[in-house]
């Protein structure tokens, strides 16, 4: 029984090759109508492996970090194990664990995950180990909510006008802070302007979180500097009105982020890739722009960042976003084409196989991050392969459910 692993604690099937890996169909599969014939040559880049320092993603369809609001005191639960494992089981090349707070007050809501204490490592490690059984790279996004922290979980949105989580609801009204004492909007708490001591504490918390992420076994680390959370709040002139060395000029506004990146790169193993998610533009006049992102990306490349995860907006309620399929792909394209050596990831309303194939095939991005479509369809990788006529390995347990290709009439 060489295709099983068994000991007193666990028993599981070895997946070889791992789910989501492009494989040539057998003649029997072709005869039975499960495949038209051999996979296209060359194979579309979407299903080609991607080298990431000392690691390799088996395909370029990745699960984007998405808050689940299902933790207590930052600890993982059985929900997180089943939630993230389902994507690995079904062939995602990389699964990114949701924004995880580097400090208790760094969480977005009282029910967000945390990585501010060593006790959090065990639960996170359990998720990582399970994903690895299916040949999927395990990533985690670490962040700080800043002035958008201490809010109610998404499930409660629409039930009241304010998003503020009170102390009785597990919030931290007296410990919400940001670069400046200006609220995101009337529904959020007004933050306190951070002291230099608090800035130093946050910087060290990111570094400590990276050490814990490594101990948990994560292959990829992503720094959250997007959507109006703390690190991006420092970047944007719309939310940063400081007059010290952390405000004013581009150099000053990017100072904290670069200190965080450089500090993390010193403790995060050289063999492990480091990503950074950024809001490429505020979508507000006078705010952070794509030109700023390109300049910063060149600096980040020299600081040891391997991939820019190109999102946008979330920092100012005046934003005007042109919501259309693939509307943010342009940002990943500009980073990839204008910052040689930096990888880029495309996000934003990517839900179709041909759409995903074209983004990567046309060198608009190196990989795609998919969020809501994975929630609707955890087998998105299998669905894309089916749509494109690519034969991929299914996990052993689900093999009987394999879809026949679009070319078959059997």
UniProtKB/TrEMBL annotation:
Domain NADH:flavin oxidoreductase/NADH oxidase N-terminal: 45-388
Name of the top EC class for this enzyme: oxidoreductase
Alphabetized UniProt keyword annotations: Flavoprotein, FMN, NADP, Oxidoreductase
GO function terms (MF aspect): 12-oxophytodienoate reductase activity; FMN binding; NADP binding; NADPH dehydrogenase activity
Enzyme Commission no: 1.3.1.42
Cofactor: FMN
Cited Gene3D superfamilies: Aldolase class I
Source species, domain of life: Eukaryota
Protein known as: NADH-dependent flavin oxidoreductase
Gene: OYE32
């Amino acid at each position: 029984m060489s295709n099983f692993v068994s000991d007193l604690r666990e028993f599981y099937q070895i997946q070889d090759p791992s789910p989501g890996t492009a494989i040539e169909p057998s003649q029997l599969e072709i005869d039975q109508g499960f495949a038209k014939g051999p996979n296209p040559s060359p194979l579309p880049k979407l299903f080609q492996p991607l080298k990431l320092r000392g690691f390799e993603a088996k395909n370029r369809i990745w699960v984007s970090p998405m808050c689940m609001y299902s933790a207590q005191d930052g600890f993982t639960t059985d929900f997180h194990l089943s939630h993230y494992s389902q994507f690995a089981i079904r062939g995602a090349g990389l699964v990114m664990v949701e924004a995880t707070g580097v400090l208790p007050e760094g969480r977005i809501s009282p029910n967000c995950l945390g990585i501010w204490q060593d006790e959090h490592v065990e639960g996170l490690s359990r998720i990582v180990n399970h994903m690895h059984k299916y040949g999927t790279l395990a990533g985690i996004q670490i962040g700080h909510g800043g002035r958008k922290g201490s809010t109610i979980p998404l499930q409660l949105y629409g039930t009241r006008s304010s998003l503020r989580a009170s102390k009785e609801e597990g919030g931290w009204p007296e410990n919400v802070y940001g670069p400046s004492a200006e609220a995101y909007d009337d529904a959020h708490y007004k933050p306190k302007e951070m002291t230099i001591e608090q800035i130093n504490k946050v910087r060290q918390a990111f570094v400590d979180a990276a050490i814990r992420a490594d101990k948990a076994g994560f292959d990829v680390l992503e720094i959250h500097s997007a959507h109006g959370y703390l690190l991006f709040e420092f970047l944007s002139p719309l939310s940063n009105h400081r007059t010290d060395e952390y405000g004013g000029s581009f150099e000053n506004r990017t100072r904290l982020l670069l200190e965080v990146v450089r500090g993390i790169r010193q403790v995060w193993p050289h063999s492990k890739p480091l990503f950074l998610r950024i809001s490429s533009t505020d979508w507000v006049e006078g705010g952070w722009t794509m030109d700023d992102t390109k300049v910063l990306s060149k600096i980040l490349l020299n600081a040891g960042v391997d991939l820019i995860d190109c999102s946008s907006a979330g920092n100012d309620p005046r934003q005007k976003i042109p919501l259309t399929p693939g509307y943010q792909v342009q940002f990943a394209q500009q980073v990839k084409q204008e910052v040689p050596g930096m990888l880029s990831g495309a996000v934003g309303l990517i839900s179709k196989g041909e759409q995903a194939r074209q983004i990567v095939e046309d060198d608009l991005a190196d990989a795609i991050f998919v969020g809501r479509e994975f929630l609707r369809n955890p087998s998105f990788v299998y669905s894309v392969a089916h749509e494109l006529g690519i034969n991929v390995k299914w996990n052993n347990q689900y093999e009987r459910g394999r879809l026949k290709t679009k070319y078959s009439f059997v």
